[in-house]
Amino acid sequence: xxxxxxxxxxxxxxxxxxxxxxxxxxxxxxxxxxxxxxxxxxxxxxxxxxxxxxxxxxxxxxxxxxxxxxxxxxxxxxxxxxxxxxxxxxxxxxxxxxxxxxxxxxxxxxxxxxxxxxxxxxxxxxxxxxxxxxxxxxxxxxxxxxxxxxxxxxxxxxxxxxxxxxxxxxxxxxxxxxxxxxxxxxxxxxxxxxxxxxxxxxxxxxxxxxxxxxxxx
Length: 217
Description:
This protein is an alpha/beta fold. The chain folds into two domains: 4-141, Rossmann fold (3-Layer(aba) Sandwich); 153-215, Winged helix-like DNA-binding domain superfamily/Winged helix DNA-binding domain (Arc Repressor Mutant, subunit A), CATH 1.10.10. It is built from ten helices and six strands. It has a six-stranded parallel sheet, with helices on both faces. Helix 4 links the parallel strand 4 (81-85) and strand 5. Helix 7 crosses helix 9 (179-193) and helix 8 crosses helix 9 (179-193). InterPro entries: CheY-like_superfamily, NreC/VraR/RcsB-like_REC, Sig_transdc_resp-reg_C-effctor, Sig_transdc_resp-reg_receiver, Tscrpt_reg_LuxR_C, WalR-like, WH-like_DNA-bd_sf. Residues 144-209 form the HTH luxR-type domain.
């Protein structure tokens, strides 16, 4: 494969540098841009029109990777986005695909897995890391149901921000929504998940792997 242009989206410069070195050691790969937030990812995508976006889910500046995936795909239905994240919850992977991602691998995987996933996504295929594939298979075989199953990608992103301690006004600014709209989403999310209080909602988000307990403060 030759001439695959890649946009790196991660809020840690060291991680982006590691990805750049890894990919540019492979024949035919070139990193054309970098971004550290959902907003700059969208701007960089419009500027560089990369073949593949390598996207983290936990980003700086409020809105996360799910929102960035959704926003980019709204602008370009053919965008090919590979999510590379520390999150290994099956429900999170499924939400990423629902938002428009073409692949999902975890940062705990081998370097060769990331390269293979970028190649697969660049060809127009679907990529899924071995560890998350096992997680999804185990959950489905056990007929398990995640609290996130009834939420759409935007609802999932708002839940993540709520569980991370963001205020209604902060969420509204991050997602370019009105405070009233965020409040309506918040109510709908609580209703769908059967949460009695906001504390219960945060507890459900943690249990689903959407955020870690250390982030919900």
